[in-house]
Design goal:
Strand content: under 5%
Order of helices and strands: HHHHHHHHHHHHHHHHHHH
Structural class: mainly alpha
Largest sheet: none
Number of helices: 19
C-alpha cells in the first residue's frame, strides 16, 4: 500500500516537473511572437527600472508566487522580449512581493494580544530583509550594472551546448513543443497561449509545493520544530533545503509565523531560516533557464546573486544582521499598540506604493514616447 502511494507521489512529481518545462517553453514562445509586434510596448514598460521593480513586486503580491514571476521573467528574456538589464529589477521586486504571505498570516493573531507582536515581527522580518537588500543593490545595479555584469560573466563560463541542443531537431522535445505551440497560436492567438501558459505555470508550481510539503512536513511538523532551529547553520540550512525542494518561499516562511508567535522559535532563528528560504527559492529560476539562452541563464544567476549577497551581508555581519530584527520588532510593538498600523503597512508597501509609482512612471514614459525623435528607430530583440 505504501509502495503504491509512493510510486503515485513520484509519478505526480515527475509529471509536474515535465509540465513545468512545457509551460516555460510555451510561455517563451508566446513572448517571442508577441514581442515581435510589441517591441515598443516592452521597451516602454520596462525601460524604467522603477517600473520593472514594482511590476515584479505587485505581480508577485497578487500571484503569491515569486517562482512564477521569476520563471516568467526568464521566459521573456529567453524569447528576447525583455533585456537582461530590464528584467533584473523585476526579479528584485518579486523577492519583496513574495513576502506578503507571511505578513498576512501574522494578521490572524490580531485577536491574541500575547502573540500578535511576535507574529507581526516574524511576518515582516522577511519583508524588511528583502527591502534592505534591494535598497543596497538596486542603486549599484543602476549605476554600475553590478548584477548584470557578474551574472553575464558567470553565464558565459558555464553555458555550454547541452544534449538537447545536439539532438536532431525532430528528435528534440522542443521541436514538437514548437509545432504544437505554433498550432495553438494560429488557432487562438499568442495572447491566449500566454495566459494559458501563465495559468499552467502557476498551477504546477503550487501543485509541486503542496505535494512536496505533504511528503516532507505533513505529520512530522513537531519533529521538524525540534531539529531545525538548534543553531544558525541548521536554521539557515533547513530554510534553504525545504524551499529548494518545495519551491515556495511563501509556504516555508509562513511556517515560521505560528512558531515565532507561540514562542517555540526565537525571532533570530526564524530570520536565519527565512534567509535560507530566500536563497532556496532561486532554484526555480535556475531550472527554468535550463536549455535556454545565455541571457536567460544570466537572469537566473542574477537572481541567485541578489539573494546570496543579501544573505552574506545580513547573516555574517553582526551590525547588519541586527537591523532587520530591530525594525521588525519595533513594527510588531507599534502594531500591538495601534493595530491599524499592520493593515496600513500591507496596503502601502504591497499595493498603494507600487500602483502609484507604476502609474506616474507610465504616464511619464508615454509622454516621452509621444515626443520621441522621428529618426530614432526601435527594433525588437531577436
Amino acid at each position: 500500500m505504501k509502495t503504491s502511494q509512493s510510486m503515485k507521489g513520484i509519478t505526480g512529481i515527475l509529471l509536474a516537473i515535465f509540465g513545468f518545462f512545457v509551460s516555460i517553453h510555451l510561455l517563451g514562445l508566446s513572448f517571442q511572437v508577441i514581442g515581435n509586434g510589441f517591441s515598443e510596448f516592452f521597451d516602454m514598460a520596462f525601460a524604467n527600472p522603477a517600473i520593472g521593480l514594482f511590476i515584479g513586486l505587485l505581480g508577485t503580491a497578487i500571484l503569491q508566487s515569486s517562482s512564477t514571476t521569476t520563471s516568467m521573467a526568464v521566459a521573456a528574456v529567453a524569447a528576447g522580449s525583455v533585456s537582461l538589464e530590464n528584467a533584473i529589477p523585476v526579479v528584485m521586486g518579486a523577492n519583496i512581493g513574495t513576502t506578503l504571505t507571511s505578513t498576512i498570516v501574522s494578521m490572524s493573531y490580531m485577536t491574541k494580544t500575547a502573540e500578535f507582536r511576535k507574529a507581526v515581527s516574524a511576518g515582516t522580518v522577511h519583508d524588511i530583509f528583502n527591502v534592505l537588500t534591494c535598497v543596497l543593490l538596486f542603486p549599484l545595479e543602476l549605476r554600475y550594472g553590478l548584477l548584470s555584469r557578474l551574472s553575464t560573466g558567470i553565464a558565459s563560463m558555464v553555458h555550454t551546448p547541452t544534449a538537447v541542443d545536439t539532438l536532431p531537431s525532430k528528435l528534440s522535445i522542443y521541436h514538437w513543443l514548437d509545432l504544437g505551440g505554433n498550432l495553438l497560436i494560429n488557432w487562438f492567438g499568442p495572447f491566449v497561449l500566454l495566459i494559458a501558459s501563465v495559468v499552467l505555470l502557476f498551477y504546477i508550481v503550487k501543485k509541486i509545493s503542496n505535494i512536496l510539503y505533504d511528503k516532507l512536513i505533513g505529520n512530522a511538523q513537531s519533529k521538524f520544530e525540534s531539529i531545525a532551529f538548534q543553531n544558525t547553520f541548521k536554521s539557515f540550512g533547513w530554510g534553504f533545503l525545504l524551499t529548494s525542494v518545495i519551491q515556495s518561499s511563501s509556504l516555508t516562511t509562513s511556517l515560521i509565523v505560528p512558531l515565532a508567535a507561540t514562542g517555540k522559535v526565537k525571532l533570530k532563528r526564524a530570520f536565519q531560516f527565512i534567509m535560507g528560504a530566500n536563497l532556496g527559492t532561486t532554484i526555480t529560476a535556475l531550472l527554468a533557464a535550463l536549455f535556454k539562452s545565455e541571457a536567460a541563464i544570466s537572469l537566473a544567476i542574477a537572481h541567485f546573486l541578489f539573494n546570496s549577497i543579501g544573505v552574506l551581508i545580513f547573516l555574517t555581519i553582526p551590525l547588519f544582521s541586527r537591523i532587520p530584527l530591530y525594525l521588525s520588532d519595533k513594527l510588531g510593538a507599534i502594531s500591538l499598540k495601534y493595530k491599524v498600523t499592520a493593515f496600513a503597512y500591507i496596503l502601502v508597501v504591497f499595493f498603494l506604493l507600487p500602483f502609484t509609482l507604476i502609474y506616474f512612471s507610465k504616464s511619464r514614459n508615454m509622454a516621452a514616447y509621444e515626443h520621441k525623435v522621428p529618426t530614432i528607430e526601435l527594433t525588437s530583440n531577436k
